[in-house]
Amino acid sequence: MSNRTLTMIKPDAMKKGHAGAILDKIIKAGFRIVAIKQLKLTTEKAGEFYDVHRARPFFGELVEFMSSGVIIAAILEKENAVPDFRKLIGATDPAKAEEGTIRKLFASSLGENAIHGSDSDENAKIEGDFFFSALEKF
Ligand code: GDP
After folding, report:
1. Can you give the CATH number for the domain in which 31 is found?
2. Type and span of the H or E element at 40
3. Largest CB tally within 10 Å, which of 27, 38, 111, 126?
4. Which of 62, 89, 118, 120 to mutate to test the pocket of ligand 1 (most atoms within 8 A of CB)?
5. Whose CA is nearest to atom 19 of ligand 1?
6. What is the domain range of residue 123?
7. DSSP-derived 3-state class of residue 131
8. Candidates 59, 110, 116, 120: which one to mutate for ligand 1, based on the most atoms within 8 Å of Cβ?
9. What is the per-residue pLDDT across 38-81, written as a single tens digit (0 to 9) for each?
């Protein structure tokens, strides 16, 4: 599974109309779309996805934000998918993200930072299974 990662285009980027430009950058960076869907998370499902952050002071804000609008979730495939995708999206805080990264280009704040990328192969598998059944992966 080390060649797959899970991304979400977050509600801020969706509302600003950046989904097309972000997907274009992802595809031009050499990632293949294995699965993709548009959906809106409930607060409960957003909390489940970010369960590791439940004790953090920003958990409530994070769950509110992630359930505030439509998102796009996708499984992406490429050699070294997890580290290469983290590089493409840039640092969590867009103010610290490198020039040309998706967060630098499209995110406005640490909380509302446009895009998610799995942080390990193990989490990529868990997160991919959170959104997609075997019938939806190609
Ligand atoms: P990531 O792996 O780069 O997404 O970063 P983390 O796993 O550390 O955090 C998960 C998500 O929580 C981030 O992408 C942000 O959307 C959000 N987040 C992280 N830190 C903060 C914070 O201090 N305040 C708020 N409101 N959200 C945060």
Report:
1. 3.30.70.141
2. strand 32-40
3. 111
4. 62
5. 111
6. 4-136
7. helix
8. 110
9. 999 999 999 999 999 999 999 999 999 999 999 999 999 999 99
